[in-house]
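Replying to the earlier thread about multi-chain prediction with a worked example.

Input:
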Amino acid sequence: MVTIEHIREARERLGDAVHQTPLLESTLLNRLLGHRILFKAENFQKIGAFKARGALNTLRVLQERGEPLRSVVSHSSGNHAQAVAWACGLIGIPCTVFMPETASAIKQQATRSYGATVVTTPTRQEAEAGSAAMEQEGAMLLHPYDRDEVIAGQGTAALEVLDDGLQPTAVFTPCGGGGLLSGSTVVFRELAPKTALYGVEPVSANDAARSYRSGSLFRFEEAPKTLADGVQTLSLSERTLRYIRRTDGIIEVDEEEIVYWTQWLTHLLKVTVEPTAVLGMAGAARWLAGRKKPETVLVILTGGNLSSETRARIWDRDLLQTVPEPGV
Amino acid sequence: MVTIEHIREARERLGDAVHQTPLLESTLLNRLLGHRILFKAENFQKIGAFKARGALNTLRVLQERGEPLRSVVSHSSGNHAQAVAWACGLIGIPCTVFMPETASAIKQQATRSYGATVVTTPTRQEAEAGSAAMEQEGAMLLHPYDRDEVIAGQGTAALEVLDDGLQPTAVFTPCGGGGLLSGSTVVFRELAPKTALYGVEPVSANDAARSYRSGSLFRFEEAPKTLADGVQTLSLSERTLRYIRRTDGIIEVDEEEIVYWTQWLTHLLKVTVEPTAVLGMAGAARWLAGRKKPETVLVILTGGNLSSETRARIWDRDLLQTVPEPGV
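Result:
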């Protein structure tokens, strides 16, 4: 199991290569809800998402161990692909990323600009096949969450929060494959055991909630539909489920709440957030609605890589007319 | 004239009531343009814009002088109104803001939440009339730029940049009434005289450019049309023109450049910026296109208060397909 020592070592290892991201808050939001909500702004992280932490930690661990790292391959249209491309560029390993043609032009451009060779394929399945073929030929395939070094890397965000002196009553993070939540669980269970810990998922993509309740891995047959494209993973892994069973639960939210909080956090915090990133806030709002005295909570904003298509779907109606209020 | 000492005093006076806003940069943008561009993120300032600085400095100066301050009045649908409401709330003076009904619901809500009484009127002219009537009855009308204490307050943003150790080759700020540019001019001319200083305006609202060229105040008959609603002022004042004549010029940009950079800075910096806020970047891009060796420049992002209507107009087409490149 990953321990707090692994996460401390990961932070040393990452050094200045990743940003120590700021904690943001909105005086207005605090006043409207009657609680203090702090946001760890991983949308300002390298590549625009926390994924940079886990990818670079993994490659540097392998380097330290002297393992031969001739080339890395990945497939994804999401933040993990960009993280792998960026981390490989930083340490000078050739990297190939297979992306489906449906991946937005700006994500392809960003991945190329980090120095990766981008191969576009007609479908997602063909991207996976291309990636698997290169792994067969000896390239290293970097898994987005089912790996101790990735979990330790993602945990460094939570460690920074505690080093900032913040001891929240509760913490809310999105939960896709569970890497970030697993790493955060190690940090808080070890260093702040009174802090409650919640993962948050769209109800339409609630594999983690089902796995948490039953205690065994639930797997979707095909990618669930949700605006929060960062948590469309089919399932946790056995590895991440072990950590996630130690949390206080998985909160399920609907698509309307995701759109609502994407609009409101864009407005109040002046940040660009992707729908996945606001899951923590949507879960926090539900949890805070049941609290009688003022609480201080932490929400991890996971990323800000918003495609034009998703942006258009977020802003096709105006939810800023409906002001946040307690208990809603 | 405002001196660097006035600006240093203003910063002492403002203390922790305003944020020392961060300097942001995008590695990708730097690489694409071949220059280093640093952004002073005043969109993260209290009330979401630099205007908080000048408004609070003014009220605190009047308090220090022991001037009777029974009530303050303002009219605006913009950032200055919110700044006045916020500053009055902070020091406990009743404040009335007259806003035209066309002001967006969220701006009205924000202004109310700072503790101001908001009076909506059918037209902008009636808002001004209401404000003038209250001034007649003894309320203090806080002008958005034609006042030394406001200029000194706005100058504190530039002072923070120099205290961060940054000595840019050139600085680019939007220019509406000229308060921010005036304050910045005092700071840079005094402490970094080799730094070039430019104001940036939409070509459709180029009163400052015309005044700069002719040396005498040019005034529009009616509010010019531009997406950059923060610089729709009819003219500089004689006071601000005196400072602005000491800059290196006013760069005029078109509406397409404003939309382009609003989209790209939202995407690259992961920040919410209003169209006015990106004027500096639009001007910097023009200026950098003519530079042969890599430069380090500063852009002041003035605010992030974007109405739903403006957001819809910014994103009604997709300019993220056209990647920034040098000389464009």
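The mean pLDDT of chain B is 94.

Feel free to reuse this layout for your own posts.
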